[in-house]
Amino acid sequence: DIVMTQTPLSLPVTLGQPASISCRSSQSLVHSDGNTYLSWLQQRPGQPPRLLIHKISNRFSGVPDRFSGSGAGTDFTLKISRVEAEDVGVYYCTQATQSRTFGQGTKVEIE
Amino acid sequence: EVQLVESGGGLVQPGGSLRLSCAASGFTFSYSWMTWVRQAPGKGPEWVANIKQDGSEKYYVDSVKGRFTISRDNAKNSLYLQMNSLRAEDTAVYYCARDFYRDLDYWGQGTLVTVSS
What we know:
heterodimer; A: mainly beta; B: 117 residues; mainly beta; 7-stranded mixed sheet; 4-stranded antiparallel sheet
């Protein structure tokens, strides 16, 4: 199985400041079809996960442009340009290149 | 508007069975792969199973193989998860999600399964 490792696991942030979450996979996520199936999910308290970013850097419908994704191969990053109160929650990276696995999650909270 | 509504969760004894359902609306269900994902209390999500549009391909995480069966009824726009020989470690919220070209783009609210004596 591909292991997804996120850092940090806890991220205190100041409103209006940027935030960044890293995700590393145990092997390359480049699929034989040329796509890299790395997504980011947001889970607000008491809510189901919600798709934010797919295929490394594509924002899903309705996702604010303060969220951006980048990376390649085995190293990926989710950035929030200016954190808002509604961004509090747990963020997961997930890969679907080989079966599907999830990172441990990064808890974003306002300090 | 895409909607996925799970049902069928509850409290069951170890070794027991449950059948989860997911009612889909707002998109062409028969065109979509569908997936079950579970999340144990305080833990991250775990992929459980997925199924192709016509039901001809099904895949499972190793820990549920031989115990869980995913199925669908395209005429009823419904997805199912039959869970047998349940164990304490199957306790989780179970979500159905649309699997759009390997992106889980829409999720239901989930249904809680508790396995305990």
